[in-house]
Structure formats: C-alpha cells, structure tokens
Amino acid sequence: MSDKVYDVPAAWAHKAYVDDAKYKAMYEASVKDPNAFWAEHGKRIDWFHPFTKVKNTSYDPGHVSIKWFEDGITNVAYNCVDRHLAERGDQVAIIWEGDDPSESKKITYRELSAEVNKFANVLRNRGVEKGDRVTIYLPMIPEAAYAMLACARLGAVHSVVFGGFSPDSLSGRVADCASKCIITADEGLRGGRKVPLKANVDAAINLLPPDSVDHVVVVRRTGAAVDMTPGRDVYYDEAAALVTDECPAEHMNAEDPLFILYTSGSTGKPKGVLHTTGGYLVYASMTHQYVFDYHPGEIYWCTADVGWVTGHSYILYGPLANGATTLMFEGVPNYPSVSRFWEVIDKHQVNIFYTAPTAIRSLMQAGEEPVKKTSRSSLRLLGSVGEPINPEAWEWYHRVVGDNRCPIVDTWWQTETGGILITPLPGAIKLKPGSATLPFFGVVPEVVDAEGKVLSGACEGNLVIADSWPGQMRTVYGDHERFEQTYFSTYPGKYFTGDGCRRDADGYYWITGRVDDVINVSGHRMGTAEVESALVAHPKVSEAAVVGFPHDIKGQGIYAYVTLMAGEEPTEALRKELVAWVRKEIGPIASPDLIQFAPGLPKTRSGKIMRRILRKIAEDQFESLGDTSTLADPGVVDDLISNRQNKR
Ligand code: ATP
Ligand code: MG
C-alpha cells in the first residue's frame, strides 16, 4: 500500500464539473434521498414518456427485485444517435483506428444514424423483433457498434461474445439465451494475425441441435473466402444494399432488457448478466461524464474490447449518450510496435485515455523510450480498470505516460454493476496510487467481516453494497434464483461484490482482489472452473485444479494441477498436448502457463479441492499452507511441493 497522496491539480479544481465541496454535497444528497437525486439526474436522457416513479428496489432475501424509472418509455439508440443530430450531426461520433496503422476512419453522428438504421432494417428483414436475443461475435470494427445500436433500436437484446472465445464457448452462450441470429465477420484482424470468426461460428452451430440458429449475418472484414450456408448466411453488405436508412426506434420500457453479457463464470457455467434500458443508460452516461470529466468536443479513448462490459458502457453507450467522440481500436498495444498506444494518441489528439493495468505493466517492460519519443501533449486524463493497479504501475503511468500532468482515475466496478461504482472524480478527490478512492454518487459501499458484521473506520474485509443504484444488473438471464443465490445470500440484504477490500483512515477503498477463484490473465478474466472443465474433458485427464500465480507481464498466469487417468504416462509431449487442447477448447487466453502432473489433489473430506493450498504452492509459499488437518489425505501435499513446476 502506497502512502503517497497526489493533490488535485489547481487547474482541475476550477475547470472540472465537480470539485471537492460539490462532490461532498452531491454525494450526501444522493444517499440521503435517492429518489429526489435520481429523479433529477434521470432527466439527462430523453424519454418518449417521462417516468413518474424513480426507485423501486428490494434486496430482501427471496424477493430481490430491482426497478428504476419503471414507467418511463425511451430508446437507447435514440439517445445515443438521433437526439444528437440537430446539434452535432456533423461531429465525429466514432474514430475507428484499424489494426494496421494505415487504416482509420471517422464516422459522424449523421453517418452513424444511417448505418444503425440500415443495420436495424437488415435484422428486421430477418425477423428480429423486440425481445429477441441476437448474438454478436465481431472484431473491433464500426459494425460492432452499428449492430449493438441496431439491436437497441429494435428492442432486441444483444449478447456480445468476445472474438477470442472458442466455438465451444460461443455455442454455450448462444444456447443459453436461445438466440436465433448471430452477427459475425469473415475474419478478425488483431496484431497482424487473422482470426477465423465465421469458421468458429459454423463450428459453434454444429455443436447445437439442428435449426437452433436461423440467420448468420457476415460482415466482410478481410474479404477472405468463407463457407456460406444458403438460406441461413448472408453477407451484410449485400443485405444492406437492399434496405433504406430509416427504421423507427422501438418504444421501450425503462425495465425492458437491453443486453445480456456472460461473465467468465468462476462458479460453474457463465452467468448471463442482464441489464435493462433506462437506469443503465442514465448511470453509464452520468459516470462517463463525471468520472472522465468529459467536455463536449474532447476525444475520448477506451482501449477495451466491446466483448467486455467496459466496451459496452464506456466505448459505446455512455460516451454516445453524451454526444462524445469515442475512439474504437481494432488492434493490440504492441503491434506494429510497443509505441502504438502513444502514436494513436498523437494521431487522433486523444484527451482522455482509459486502459487496463495489464496493458500498462506489459508496456512498462519496454522502458520509457517508446513512450517518450511521442508527444502525448493532448492528454489530460488517464484511467485504469479491470484489476487492482499496483502502485509501481500507477506511478509509471502517471510519470511516463501522463508526464506528471494527468490525474489517474482508478475505476472499480463489475459486469454486474453496469457502470463505475468506486472511483476518484478528477477535480474533487486526491489520489493515492493503488486505491480506487471513494464511491460515486448513490453508491453505498460497506466492508463486512466473514459473518456479515459491518465494520467501521479503517478495516479490511469483504466489499458489499448496501443499496441499489440505477445501473445494477436486474437478474441472471433465465435464472433469477441464481441471481439471488450468487449476490444476495452470502450477506442477506446486501449486494455481495465477491471482492475483498481494505478501507483506510481517510475512508479510501483499496480493492484486494476477488474472494473466490477467478484468475485474471492479461486483463482477461476466467473462472478456474472453466479451464478445469476443459482439461478434464481430455481423455487422458482424470482431474484438474487451476489456480493463478503472479506473472510479471500477464498479472496472473495459469497454473494447472492435473491428475492423469490410471496407466497414462506424464510426458513432456502430453503437457504440450494439454496446453494446445485448452487453447482449442476455450481460446488462446486460457492456455496454461505451467502444468504439474499430480497423482493426487488436496481435498476436504467432503471431496472439495482446497485451492488455497494449491495457490500457496504455486506462489512458492510452502511455509504458509495453513491448516492441512482437514484434508482427506495430507500426504498429497508433500508430493505436490516436491514436484512443483518452475516459473518461466
Ligand atoms: P466473474 O464474475 O465471472 O467471476 P469477473 O469478476 O472477473 O468475472 P468482471 O465483471 O469483468 O469479471 O470484473 C470485475 C472484477 O474486476 C471486480 O469484481 C474486481 O475484482 C476487478 N476489478 C475491476 N476494476 C478494478 C479496479 N479498478 N481495482 C481493483 N479491482 C478491479
Ligand atoms: Mg465478478
């Protein structure tokens, strides 16, 4: 924990929307009378019929129900596009920067409107209606934004699946929400490499019962020849040539679903996190404006992929609802060189830059020169999201990237929260490297101990949120019981975040990481269970347990303990085969870094694997294994220690 404090720069205190006094007053008002506060801020979006009710939420065990602005009628695409046309039709809405630095494109709000309307008509011609689920499996190209907004325009519920997922993961996500339509591209392009998206879609559909998917819309990205199934598959450009650029925006209730996004699934199969229309958009747009102190005309860049919630809320919906210029990047930080981020900032004169600690850590390895040779003089604010940022990386980001000039907003939030919950506001809150600092308006964090006792003052424990905010997820798609079980049963009456945290004497929050077993590899989160089940699916594997271990570049690496079927030989060739197997099953992001063959795994008497012991071994902390007396067979631990794999 760093004890350094960075004051709010003088220029910021005057120019930002919110200064220290205003933050305190607004925060106070927001938690004292949420109805009055959100009645006012709910008006920041346009409503076809205004709401008369504001907050109607209950965290009561067995009756968890979350509704905001429930009688209001609006449309998210209307708010992100149409309402800006009169005032800023010719302003750039999206700057697209391709994987190859020679490719970029600017799309004005007027052009965006035409593209979204056309895309909506293409979908409508394929029978997509209000309430239908549409799976989007696209690279970071403008069509991803058009497709998402087209769904919102029609009232269809999109489920974006990250393009790095395998056919297996994709098919599970298509099946879970029974989507009949998939939007994809011939191929994706990342870091100069091609990703066979359409072939993956075909493979995914082959894993589903016949006739599960009626339509596949294929955007041409690389122009590669791909298999097209007649009657089912259509090229987007051919379909779009036949439609007009006018499609009415569906009237949506504030509580109608907007999208489903599957979390990485630490506790079994991935959860379909469901977000709805009104509260989500109010919260995403308000946080985008205040946290990034976004002022009209500024160029804003969030480097996330639209396959993650950060891409939903802070590339697309928040910025576009605010009439911002948002940059969308197809590539990766180190292609063609490790200066790419900084070159893009200079090329497009980016003012606000939002990325993840894993990217910062990997770029740090290359030293200062690739950064310092660029200007970056347009930058005024930096942001971080996805995992705790270690103070060393924070300082480097501040000093080297931001030239000691730009505040850093370390934003803590989750897929489930829809938007940022704990964060500095750059004109109001002093920064401490490694701390997400203080709650956003309307957010009531509490720290509880294992028994649920609310702790006060400086303390450490589990992070819960005591009351609802408009951007909160409404349910797990198709499984409300799982929603209640996962988030509201551990500490009845409160939303359990699953994260541990520390609160210091100034009331600042320091997130210490998740309480359960999710690993975060290069900013990509995955449940250990997902990797384990892939390993166990291999015919020679009988059992597997996966934990993270500290990895200099990736943040966390994947350490897999594998028990083989009786009679199978633990060879180097098999080790390689298993790594390739997981790559194929889940995707390259899930490749184990280290595999240890283990004749037995430490288990409780009830048969549960004790991951905390495996984690300690992977971390080289043999002396702090803790109590092993409850193990069914304590002897396995010695074997695990003596055969531990060396870190690369
Ligand atoms: P799953 O819920 O399936 O296990 P996940 O929690 O890894 O997946 P996300 O919703 O994308 O998926 O990530 C949210 C989590 O990321 C938070 O709960 C927290 O652990 C971590 N996180 C995000 N931002 C920050 C931050 N600024 N500081 C510390 N941790 C963060
Ligand atoms: Mg989570």
TrEMBL record:
<feature type="binding site">
    <location>
        <position position="541"/>
    </location>
    <ligand>
        <name>Mg(2+)</name>
    </ligand>
</feature>
<dbReference type="Pfam" id="PF00501">
    <property type="entry name" value="AMP-binding"/>
</dbReference>
<dbReference type="Pfam" id="PF16177">
    <property type="entry name" value="ACAS_N"/>
</dbReference>
<dbReference type="InterPro" id="IPR045851">
    <property type="entry name" value="AMP-bd_C_sf"/>
</dbReference>
<dbReference type="InterPro" id="IPR011904">
    <property type="entry name" value="Ac_CoA_lig"/>
</dbReference>
<dbReference type="InterPro" id="IPR032387">
    <property type="entry name" value="ACAS_N"/>
</dbReference>
<feature type="binding site">
    <location>
        <position position="583"/>
    </location>
    <ligand>
        <name>CoA</name>
    </ligand>
</feature>
<feature type="domain" description="Acetyl-coenzyme A synthetase N-terminal">
    <location>
        <begin position="23"/>
        <end position="80"/>
    </location>
</feature>
<feature type="binding site">
    <location>
        <begin position="190"/>
        <end position="193"/>
    </location>
    <ligand>
        <name>CoA</name>
    </ligand>
</feature>
<dbReference type="InterPro" id="IPR025110">
    <property type="entry name" value="AMP-bd_C"/>
</dbReference>
<dbReference type="GO" id="GO:0019427">
    <property type="term" value="P:acetyl-CoA biosynthetic process from acetate"/>
</dbReference>
<keyword id="KW-0479">Metal-binding</keyword>
<protein>
    <recommendedName>
        <fullName>Acetyl-coenzyme A synthetase</fullName>
        <ecNumber>6.2.1.1</ecNumber>
    </recommendedName>
</protein>
<dbReference type="InterPro" id="IPR000873">
    <property type="entry name" value="AMP-dep_synth/lig_dom"/>
</dbReference>
<feature type="binding site">
    <location>
        <begin position="386"/>
        <end position="388"/>
    </location>
    <ligand>
        <name>ATP</name>
    </ligand>
</feature>
<dbReference type="GO" id="GO:0005524">
    <property type="term" value="F:ATP binding"/>
</dbReference>
<feature type="binding site">
    <location>
        <position position="525"/>
    </location>
    <ligand>
        <name>ATP</name>
    </ligand>
</feature>
<keyword id="KW-0067">ATP-binding</keyword>
<keyword id="KW-0547">Nucleotide-binding</keyword>
<keyword id="KW-0436">Ligase</keyword>
<keyword id="KW-0007">Acetylation</keyword>
<feature type="binding site">
    <location>
        <position position="522"/>
    </location>
    <ligand>
        <name>CoA</name>
    </ligand>
</feature>
<dbReference type="GO" id="GO:0016208">
    <property type="term" value="F:AMP binding"/>
</dbReference>
<feature type="binding site">
    <location>
        <position position="538"/>
    </location>
    <ligand>
        <name>Mg(2+)</name>
    </ligand>
</feature>
<dbReference type="GO" id="GO:0005829">
    <property type="term" value="C:cytosol"/>
</dbReference>
<dbReference type="InterPro" id="IPR042099">
    <property type="entry name" value="ANL_N_sf"/>
</dbReference>
<feature type="binding site">
    <location>
        <position position="310"/>
    </location>
    <ligand>
        <name>CoA</name>
    </ligand>
</feature>
<dbReference type="InterPro" id="IPR020845">
    <property type="entry name" value="AMP-binding_CS"/>
</dbReference>
<feature type="modified residue" description="N6-acetyllysine">
    <location>
        <position position="608"/>
    </location>
</feature>
<feature type="binding site">
    <location>
        <position position="499"/>
    </location>
    <ligand>
        <name>ATP</name>
    </ligand>
</feature>
<comment type="function">
    <text>Catalyzes the conversion of acetate into acetyl-CoA (AcCoA), an essential intermediate at the junction of anabolic and catabolic pathways. AcsA undergoes a two-step reaction. In the first half reaction, AcsA combines acetate with ATP to form acetyl-adenylate (AcAMP) intermediate. In the second half reaction, it can then transfer the acetyl group from AcAMP to the sulfhydryl group of CoA, forming the product AcCoA.</text>
</comment>
<feature type="domain" description="AMP-dependent synthetase/ligase">
    <location>
        <begin position="82"/>
        <end position="467"/>
    </location>
</feature>
<feature type="binding site">
    <location>
        <begin position="410"/>
        <end position="415"/>
    </location>
    <ligand>
        <name>ATP</name>
    </ligand>
</feature>
<keyword id="KW-0460">Magnesium</keyword>
<feature type="binding site">
    <location>
        <position position="536"/>
    </location>
    <ligand>
        <name>Mg(2+)</name>
    </ligand>
</feature>
<dbReference type="Pfam" id="PF13193">
    <property type="entry name" value="AMP-binding_C"/>
</dbReference>
<feature type="binding site">
    <location>
        <position position="514"/>
    </location>
    <ligand>
        <name>ATP</name>
    </ligand>
</feature>
<comment type="similarity">
    <text>Belongs to the ATP-dependent AMP-binding enzyme family.</text>
</comment>
<dbReference type="GO" id="GO:0046872">
    <property type="term" value="F:metal ion binding"/>
</dbReference>
<feature type="domain" description="AMP-binding enzyme C-terminal">
    <location>
        <begin position="530"/>
        <end position="608"/>
    </location>
</feature>
<feature type="binding site">
    <location>
        <position position="334"/>
    </location>
    <ligand>
        <name>CoA</name>
    </ligand>
</feature>
<dbReference type="GO" id="GO:0003987">
    <property type="term" value="F:acetate-CoA ligase activity"/>
</dbReference>
